[in-house]
Amino acid sequence: MPAAVTTFSGPELARLLALIKGADSVELKLTVADVAHRPTATALGLDALQAQLRQVVFFDTPELTLEKHGLVVRARRIQGKGEDSIVKLRPVAPGDVPAALRRAPGFRLEVDALPGGFVCSGTLKGAPRAGRVERVLAGQLPIRKLFSKEQRALYAAQAPAGLSLDALTVLGPILILKLPFRPADLGRRMVAELWLYPDGSRVLELSSRCEPTEAFQAAAELRSYLDERGVAVDGEQQAKTRKALEYFARAGAEPPRRSAGRLRAPA
């Protein structure tokens, strides 16, 4: 989340305002230093036993070709809620999004704001049939079966030529604990996410989503709330998704899958 509006230069502030104006929502984010995980949980009254378990898997090449092209392809299993999948463009400018995609059900533009920076993402979300994520992880289904016709079309339009969904490598899965909470003296919903990497490292992220019109007010209130509880908001930030992609790419992922059938571009 922005430490203060004055930390941005004039051009940066103008760009941020333009992104916010064209977005559906703003998410204020902060990652907490490793040594501060326990004190932060205590200060905010977080109870890990109340958290929801999530399993997330990414799809890319071992060289992270999609990530370098600003494309994130992901699926999740969510405790008590089923499964979902996304195709995400990041960064993206709201004015560059085609009108048809902008109107598509399940598509959202969101600005992520964190200390020292911000980025706008466009995400098209889908809902695979129950059990499909597990079957893809087990090699029983091709990757494309996790994604809707609209998601496949977006992927085909944005991915490097010749790189089909079924040619991607499975990166993951990784376990995440998600804990929503609403502090009485803040009046805003917050979320704590703890990403548990297989090597024992962790990333703790605090976030709060708000309407674009209240982004700066929400950032000021959230900063004040965290400052009062001794949670540092100006520390070095960690990119949890990039850390996961790089970890699994380094660890050596399974070889690319063969397509279970010719992939045709959706009409």
Give average pLDDT, whole number. 91
Helical stretch tally: 8
Question: Which CATH-level-2 architecture?
Answer: Beta Barrel
Distance between the amino and carboxyl termini: 40 Å
Would you write up a description of this structure?
With 267 residues, this protein is an alpha+beta fold. It has one domain (5-251): Beta Barrel (Hypothetical Protein Pfu-838710-001). Helices cover 27% and strands 30% of the residues. It contains 8 helices and 9 strands. The chain has a 9-stranded mixed beta barrel, surrounded by 4 helices. A hairpin with a 2-residue loop joins strand 5 (107-114) and strand 6. The longest helix is centred in the last third of the chain and has 14 residues, at 215-228. The protein is globular and about 50 Å long.
Jot down its keywords.
single chain; 267 residues; alpha+beta; Hypothetical Protein Pfu-838710-001; nine-stranded mixed beta barrel; 9 strands; 27% helix; globular; disordered N terminus; disordered C terminus
Set out the fold topology:
Elements: H1 10-22, E1 25-32, H2 37-44, E2 52-60, H3 65-68, E3 71-78, E4 82-89, H4 99-103, E5 107-114, E6 117-126, H5 132-137, H6 149-158, E7 169-181, E8 190-196, E9 202-210, H7 215-228, H8 240-251
Parallel strand pairs: 1-5
Antiparallel strand pairs: 1-9, 2-3, 2-7, 3-4, 4-6, 5-6, 7-8, 8-9
